[in-house]
Design goal:
CATH architecture: Alpha-Beta Barrel
Bound molecules: 5-hydroxymethyl-3,4-dihydroxypiperidine
Radius of gyration: 20 Å
Strand order of the largest sheet: 1-2-3-4-5-7-10-11
Shape: globular
Largest sheet: 8 strands, parallel, barrel
CATH topology: TIM Barrel
């Protein structure tokens, strides 16, 4: 079970800006997004990472424990990841060198609050330095508060199912924004809170994976001296929607209390769903997987859309990737134009400005990424030209990083990372994105 595909595990049913000027310039205030329209600020061209996937040694987090415990569904532990907790300045310099104006990263709650109520000012200072360094480099820093991981103590209390979870998360959100200050460009409360619903919809769980998941969580609970261990996108997916949306609401309110001008949103995993045949179950899927989140997103400043491929939906549910189609390392169909349809759909459903917070593919062959990027960005810009308020495109990912259950096998990065030395090497496909960004920003 070396390379467990994240989607396969999810399907098992148990896991369940403002643009600041270039270098040296002072940070500017964030222009508010006007109702339903993108602000007049430049298009956000960027790359994204998440703390647990790049920082390394995120030892107080829930997922770190699951990687270590027996049995585990993780093919390997995250370990040092890309050593970005130390090398973040280099990462920011790379983003800047690629003509991009935005860096999306996440703050790790378990570093900021490793034990309940014990706040690490040193960790908060670390992330504040990152935000300020982005601004100094002319980058808009987009901060994600919850990118799957939570502190281990939070999971051991029942995670998002604990009645206090929304309040506790909102307190964390307020603390982060107070400390990171005026330079944050946009805040994402939750990354893909609909991922488990998406993975499970219309699929029959693999009983062996389901059993290992149950055993892994039981072992983690025991190791934590608890009778429960619950994290984002595990357990009863439908039951988790309400508490997570309540946490989002409370966090948004807390953030606005500190910075009323700061754009707040969440991100959703949205493939380009395509109906096949007259009895396609596509609307049923949409009602289950996206609709509750869209309702809430209508109150947000923007919606983050994360698209990797298309999904064909027939009368029985999801259909396999068409025979003979080119596939990525994750088994998805190579289908870069998908992002155009998901942007239009998400905007039509919410009326909100859309930020492409993730888009990309896993491939060992960078020439495939070099074909993907022009086609995907062309689809985004075509939607923008049609009048869809798309405010940016952030490629996933800046670095070849830790791909959850699949470990270090899948290569999503614009930049490769030597696993022994952490040396970063910019791939040719990154220069293609750099050229596209420069040409668009200089129009
Ligand atoms: O690596 C993940 C990321 O953490 C969330 N969105 C999908 C990416 C690729 O699977």
């Amino acid at each position: 079970m070396r390379s467990l595909n994240r989607r396969a595990v999810l399907a098992a049913g148990t896991l369940a800006a403002t643009f600041a000027p270039r270098a040296g310039a002072a940070a500017t205030a964030v222009a508010p997004l006007r109702d339903g329209h993108a602000s007049a600020t430049p298009f956000l061209w960027g790359a994204a990472t998440a703390g647990h996937q790049v920082e390394g040694n995120n030892v107080a987090s829930d997922i770190w424990l699951l990687e270590q415990i027996k049995p585990t569904l993780f093919s390997e532990p995250s370990g040092d990841a890309c050593d970005s907790f130390e090398r973040w300045r280099e990462d920011i310099e790379i983003v800047q060198s690629l003509n991009l104006n935005t860096y999306r990263f996440s703050v790790e709650w378990s570093r900021i609050e490793p034990a309940e109520g014990q706040v690490s000012l040193s960790a908060l200072d670390h992330y504040r330095r990152m935000v300020l360094a982005c601004r100094e480099a002319g980058l808009a820093p987009i901060v994600t508060l919850s990118h799957f991981t939570s502190p281990r103590w939070f999971a051991a209390k029942g995670g998002w199912f604990h009645p206090d979870a929304p309040t506790v998360f909102a307190r964390h959100a307020e603390r982060v924004i107070r400390h990171l200050g005026e330079s944050v460009s946009h805040v994402i409360t939750f990354n893909e809170p609909n991922l488990q619903l998406l993975g499970e919809w219309g699929r029959t769980p693999d009983p062996a994976v389901r059993q290992t998941m149950t055993d892994m969580l039981a072992a983690a609970a025991k190791a934590s001296g608890s009778d429960r261990f619950s994290l984002m996108n595990t357990g009863d997916a439908a039951a988790m929607v309400a508490p997570v949306l309540e946490a989002h609401r409370q966090a948004r309110q807390a953030i606005k209390g500190v910075r009323p001008d700061l754009p707040v949103g969440m991100t959703l995993a949205i493939p380009d769903d395509q109906a096949v045949g007259p009895d396609s179950r596509i609307e049923e899927k949409r009602a289950t997987v996206y609709a509750p989140f869209f309702v809430e997103a209508r109150q947000d400043d923007f919606l983050g859309v994360q698209t990797y491929s298309r999904s064909l939906i027939g009368a029985e549910g999801p259909l396999p990737v068409p025979e003979g189609a080119e596939r990525t390392q994750m088994g998805d169909e190579f289908y870069p134009q998908a992002i155009g349809a998901s942007i239009r759909y998400a905007h039509a459903q919410t009326g909100r400005p859309i930020l492409v917070t993730e888009n990309g593919l896993a491939t060992q062959d960078d020439t495939v990424r070099a074909r993907f990027i022009p086609a995907a960005t062309a689809a985004v810009l075509a939607a923008r030209d049609e009048g869809v308020p798309v405010i940016g495109y952030l490629h996933w990912s800046l670095l070849d990083n830790f791909e959850w259950f699949s470990g270090y096998g899948p290569k999503f990065g614009l930049v490769s990372v030597d696993r022994a030395t952490f040396k970063r090497t910019i791939k040719p496909s990154a220069q293609i994105l750099a050229r596209i960004a420069r040409s668009d920003l200089s129009r």
